Amino acid sequence: MVSATDQRRLIQEIKSREYDSNDLNEIAERVRFAFQKLGYFKVSVQAPSVTALQPDGSRQIVDVNVTVSEGERYRLKDIRFKASTLFPAAQLRAQFKISDGEIFDRERIANGLDELRSLYCTRGYLDFSAVPETTIDETLHTVSLDVDLDEGSEFRAGKLLVLGEESEPGAKEKLLNAWKPYEGRVFDCGLLQHFLRDLHARPDVTPERIFKTSQNPATQVVDVEITLVKPPIF
C-alpha cells in the first residue's frame, strides 16, 4: 500500500508540469512511472478522466481522476549482462546506482542504462545499445534484469570540413591544423570538447552548438563539419 506521504509526493510530482489536453495518456504514463519508481513494477493505471475545468488565462486548470491498482512491491534480485566483451561485468554493474535487494526503481534502472551508453562512448562505441529484459519472481516479489548488449564498433575521427566565410585570414587553416592531431583518434564522447579547449573557445561554446557530425558505419569513421561565421564564435 502506498503511504499517504508517498501519495502526496506523487501528486505534487505529476502536477509540476503542464499537459496537452488532447493527450491524457501522458498523465497516465507519468503516474505509472512514478509508481514504478517506488517498486510497483506491475502497477495498473486506468485512463484518466477530467472532472472539472477552469480557465486560467491561456491555460485550463483541470481536476483529473486516475484509478490505480499498484499491485505488489518488487525488489531487485540481480543484474546480468549478455554479450559483454569490452568491459568486465563488475564495471558494467557499477553503472547502476542500485544494490541487489533494494526497491526496484524504474528511474534508477533507466539512469543505469544511460550510464552504460556513456561508458561505451568513452571508448568510441557510438552505436552501443542495451536492451533490458526482466524476469519476475512472483513468490519472492523480485525482479532480475538481463541486459543484452549490442556493443557495435569503435569509431575514429575522420576529416574536418570547414565551411562558411573566414572572420580573419587564415582561420580555416588554423582549424585544419589544429584538427590534425585528432584525425584517426578514437572518437570518444569528449573529443570535440577537447578540440574546443585547444582552440581556446569561450566556456559557453559547446560542441552541439557549432559542429555537425556524420558517422560512416562501413568505415567506422566520424567526419566533422563546422561553418565559420562573422563575428567569430570563438
Keywords:
about 230 residues, alpha/beta, Ubiquitin-like (UB roll), 7 helices, 10 strands, flat
* Helix-strand topology string: HHEEEEEHHEEEHHHEE
User: What is the mean pLDDT?
Assistant: 90
Main sheet summary: 3 strands, mixed
Which class do the helix and strand fractions yield?
Answer: alpha/beta
Q: State the share of residues found in helices, binned by percent.
A: 25-40%
Q: How many separate domains?
A: 3
Gyration radius, rounded: 24 Å
Class of the largest domain in CATH?
A: Alpha Beta
Would you count the extended β strands for me? 10
Give the strand content: 25-35%
By CATH's scheme, which homologous superfamily of the largest domain applies?
membrane protein fhac
Distance between the termini: 57 Å
The CATH topology of the largest domain:
Ubiquitin-like (UB roll)
Annotation field: number of helices: 7
What is the second-level CATH architecture of the largest domain?
Roll
Global geometry:
flat
Low-confidence stretches: none
Description:
The structure is a single chain. The termini are far apart. The protein has helices at 4-15, 25-37, 89-93, 106-121, 171-179, 191-198, 207-210, and strands at residues 44-45, 49-56, 59-65, 68-69, 75-82, 129-137, 142-150, 156-164, 211-216, 221-228. The model has no long low-confidence stretch (mean pLDDT 90). It contains 7 helices and 10 strands. The strands form 4 sheets. Strands 5-7-6 form a 3-stranded mixed sheet. Strands 8-10-9 form a 3-stranded mixed sheet. It is flat and about 70 Å long. It folds into 3 domains: 4-69, no CATH class; 75-150, Roll (Ubiquitin-like (UB roll)), CATH 3.10.20; 156-228, Ubiquitin-like (UB roll), CATH 3.10.20. Helix content is 29%, strand content 29%. With 234 residues, the chain is an alpha/beta fold.
